[in-house]
Amino acid sequence: MKIDHLGIAVRSIPEALAQYEPVVGGHGSAAEAVESQGVRVSFLEAGESHLEFLEPLRPDSAVGKFLENRGEGIHHLAFQVPDVAAALANVRAHGGRLIDEAPRIGARGRTVGFAHPASFRGVLVEFVGAPR
Ligand code: CO
């Protein structure tokens, strides 16, 4: 299972990119709002994977609350899978807890689904379908 990206919660995407771009190389994608999640995101290529910077659109969004409670930092780990529904079902079949009971459309128009951090040693895990 390939690591698709690491999600990093930040207060400002431009400020985060200004720090990361000179070190990682390349340029972050134009920020994209994901209204359903209350965030805007930018992806920066890092080898065969990406960093996803998440900036809250609203303080009461999940990422807004994360920043308030824990500050900036790694927010989630995303695995690329051929079938997001099957990946979620596999977690459930092994007694894991899900945040998303069914796949939905996330950033970049890709299918995503989240499992609960309680099922992965405190790590919020995202499954994301391959780019189309
Ligand atoms: Co993500």
3D architecture notes:
This protein has 132 residues and is of the alpha+beta class. Helix content is 23%, strand content 36%. The chain contains 3 helices and 8 strands, in the order βαβββαβαβββ. Strands 2-3-4-1-5-8-7-6 form an 8-stranded mixed β-sheet. A hairpin with a 2-residue loop joins strand 3 and strand 4. The longest helix has 12 residues. The radius of gyration is 14 Å and the shape is globular. 30% of the residues are buried. The model has no long low-confidence stretch (mean pLDDT 96). The site of cobalt (II) ion has 6 residues, from strand 1 and strand 5.
Overall radius of gyration: 14 Å
Fraction of residues in β-strands: 35-45%
Helix content: 10-25%
Overall mean pLDDT stands at 96
Query: Which structural class do the helices and strands define?
Result: alpha+beta
State the helix count: 3
